[in-house]
Amino acid sequence: MLRPLIALAVMAAPYVMTLTASAQTTQAPAPQVYTDNTDVMISRAMRVAQDNPDYCINAMSDFPTDDPERRYQFFRLSEEMGRDMTDDLRAALDEYGDEEVPPGSSVLDVIENIANPVLRQAAPRITVSNMAYVIDFATICEPFISGQTDSLVAFDASLTDAEFNAVIIEDALFLRQILSDTLFRLGANEDLQYSAAVAQYAQSLVTTRDEVEFTTFESELGNLEALYMDDLDGRLKRSNDMINEEMDRETLGDAVALSDSLMKAEKKKAKERQLYSLIRILGGGR
Amino acid sequence: MAVSISNLLKASYKKTCLMALFLGSSALATGCASTAKGAKQSAMVGMAKAETLQTQAPDGSAMTVIRYPAVVETSAKQAYYAAFENSAIGGGAAKSGDAAERESVADSVIVKSNYFALSLYKELAARLPEHTVLLSPHALKLDENGELTSEPITQAESLPSVISVDFATYSYPDAGKMMGDKPLTFGDLVTPLISVRADHRAQASTHGLLFASTPLIPYAAGKSQQDAVDSLSVMQKGQFDRSVPELDFVSFLTKSDRSNVPSKTLRGGLADNVVTAYPIEKIKLDGVALSQLDTANDGSVDPLERVFSDAMADNIINIVNNTDTQKAVMANKAAAIADYDPSLAALTYVGADSADYNARLRYAERLLDAERKYLSVQSLRVFDGIHNGEMGAQMRDMIMAEYEVLEERRKLARKQNQATAFAILGAVAAGASIANGGSSNNCGDARTQSEYNNCIRRAQRTNIGNSVLTNLAVQGAMVAAQEAIALNQRSKAIGSNYLSSIVPALEQQTSVTVDLLDSSETITAIRYEDLKTKLQGLYSNQQRSLDVVATRCAFGLENTATLSGTWMGVCEGGHANGVGSGVFKKADGSAVEYYGYASQGLPNGSGFMIVHEASGSHALEGNFVNGLAEGPVQVSKAGQADRLRTYRAGQDVGAASSSPLSPFNPILAK
Predict the structure, then answer these.
(1) ipTM for the predicted complex
(2) Concatenated DSSP letters for B279-348?
(3) Do B20 and B120 have their domain in common?
């Protein structure tokens, strides 16, 4: 699922490089803000982001600007890549990463490097460092990223489409899976200090994958339901209309008319009988 | 003066009729006519507090299925008519009138059930979450033994539902007694027959029966008991219980099974382990709605709503709130899931906490929800076709025509009663006059011939006067009696004429109902099968593998030497070992079904056990050690509120103060 974004990243590279070069003049250090508590993490991230506005602006500046959909994809991808991060795991990334990615590096370049199979086979520690770079960006700049995505959604509400977002989450999962696999390759899962955090991260990937797959399933099922239910409703309605035409309400009218006529005949007969009885009674039975 | 006497007579005709009875004037007494009165509203109005729904249908399940007799197959007509005549509610032999008349009454019961069931559907659909109320019209047919039974026409009962509601209207089979106090559904009168049940696992002590019209109770309970026994046999074979019970109305007609269950009156509200008995009541339709019925273009005017359906729907919500929804749906849900995933199905009885299980269950439940929504569209269209279409319009016309017939007969009955009263008063007056005329005028006391002659002349004049008065009174009484008899005959003739005239309209209603339901089911079934195939494809494409799967293996109750029962769930080494359900039949004929945790082939851990014995069924929920209850246990027995007891090695040793373990509650499961 990452293929479209990776391809996009490659295509956007020259443009990104230009932006990166201009951004390097205002680079800022990447502060650490991780914690197990998401609320605390976000509030700390907001403070850090407020303290380092240039850092976020520079990091975001290499994202596509000519297409709102592609721009949204990159912001959401960054956001998703920062998911399920904890202080312990972040420490593990420092431990198992090779060296810090140069501050102000293009996020697109970094993503491209993570996805590069040759690089991750040959230098897994660099892959870990690249992921740490993107995760830091996603965490520190979360207020800016969400501000951007909100603005883009306000501009085009179709960007919230579940299937479209599921594709982005799958792309992020692909990259996160690379990180998890790399940590396992590097033996972090057997490191007493980090094994729990690494295992927890691996489990969160399973949960997220389940969620993504279920969202896709829901979406496919929803389409199927809509198709079949609309079709069924239409068919049944047409059938009802046809069958209703079979109903001849005059049948009841005829039945009631017959009953009325019998009732009147009965009334007349009863009156005759009554008159006869009256004469008989008053005539002394003669 | 004449007016005041007339009014007096009107007011006092009942007393006069009683007096006639007292006087032994039997001929005149038979002239007293009833005016086919009905209750202004159901006894349920005001009884059931309008509670909001406090529970949710478990995922993949409907909340309520409304079942009703919709058609009678041609081959089953005679069996139905015979059973209908032989099962009269209200006592007495129902054999007056000709066969065609009685058949007309029997047919009208089906036609009216079809229409009025939709009033209840409308009310429940408005109260319960969208797509959780389904209609299940039944066809009355002959089974393989030639016995009358009923089967659902649609697939609505193939899905799990928390409760099912059986609805029918009823009329006493003898149309000659239409104006009396017998149950009647005609014109502005409706006599509902209703029963509410859950799966027997939700209230084992009454085999799932929760609420029922009084005459239905023993037969509905009997059939439920038989169904519970049958389901054990199915489970013993390692299959899922997919049985759909016949309508309780049919069980009542055929009287094939009978069982005694404790019941209580409607007035006391709902309670555990008893059936709430709903009395037979002849309810008068809402007069205001009735007056608007002939001008209504669609089903927007519902004369049954205010007087019955509204309160019944409230009552059903209360019943749902008091029902253990998990136990109510678990067997049918497992059966429905088995269509998609047999290795998951038996695990769902009590569930598991592994990620793979929960992921798969979520998919399976979502597919059942898709099926439920699909079938609810069919129900909505059946409702629309019958209630809002031409059929409904004709039914409303029919109700109005019947109402006019009934009103005419009521008018005649009132006249008949006045005539009866005149006849009785005439007879009394004649008697008094004769008594007065018969008294001796003793002229022997005259002192002179002149006094004697005057006395004799006075006596002759008085006797002539008395004689004229007596003759007039007798003749008046005879005329009045004749009129009463004539009015009575006319009234009966009106009823009889109407029933024979209406036959073509009833036949048309029936044939159009068959067409509508057949067409609806044909269209739905073709598309439904197609949808299910697609859903199955979608499910198998998406699924991750299960680490632990459900299979079939041996299960026992008291010792590992006799594991002759069947376990469907997690097995190890050919024995029950994990979650699942087990069935075990004992040598004494009793049987046990168990849902929960097992090891070494025996119930071990938290579980829910239903014990079926000749004397009845009861349920135990708590901890089990090697098949025996141990520790705090919730005990559910017929006629008693659920109790917390302490068990040691399967024996009740006294009250318990702590909550028992429950296999259905993850916190209390282990």
Answers:
(1) 0.74
(2) ----EEPPHHHHHHHTT-SSTT--TTIIIIIHHHHHHHHHHHHTS-HHHHHHHHHHHHHHTT-HHHHGGG
(3) no
Beta carbons within 8 Å of A31's beta carbon, 6+ residues apart: A48, A51, A52, A136, A140
What is the spatial distance between Cα A88 and Cα A200, in angstroms, rounded to a whole number? 10
In angstroms, the separation between the Cα of residue A268 and the nearest Cα of chain B is: 10
Structural domain for A265, as ranges: 248-286
A125 and A263 belong to one structural domain: no
- One domain for residues B84 and B122: yes
Does residue A272 sit in the same domain as residue A164? no
Q: Strand (E) positions, B55-116?
A: 62-72
Residues B183 and B322 in one domain: yes
Tokens of residue B16, six digits: 């006069």
Q: Does A285 touch chain B (CB under 8 A)?
A: no
Confidence band, pLDDT 50/70/90 cuts, at residue A42: very low
A250 lies within 8 A of chain B by CB: no
Q: Return the number of CB contacts < 8 Å for A and B.
A: 158
Instruction: Give the residue numbers spanning the domain of B563.
Output: 551-655
* Same domain? B23 vs B79: no
Q: Which of residues 195-234 of A touch B (CB under 8 A)?
A: 206-207, 210, 213-214, 216-218, 220-221, 224-225, 228-229, 231-233
Domains held by chain A: number: 2
Establish if A162 touches chain B: CB-CB under 8 angstroms: no
Same domain, B463 and B566: no
How many of the other CB atoms lie within 10 Å of CB of A188? 23
Q: pLDDT higher for B630 or A52?
A: B630
pLDDT one-digit tens code per residue, B313-349? 999 999 999 999 999 999 999 999 998 888 899 999 9
Q: What is the mean pLDDT of chain A?
A: 78
pTM for the model stands at 0.81
Please tell me the distance from the alpha carbon of residue A164 to that of residue A187, in angstroms, as a whole number.
Answer: 35
Do B490 and A281 lie within an 8 Å CB cutoff?
no
Q: Are residues B183 and B253 in the same domain?
A: yes
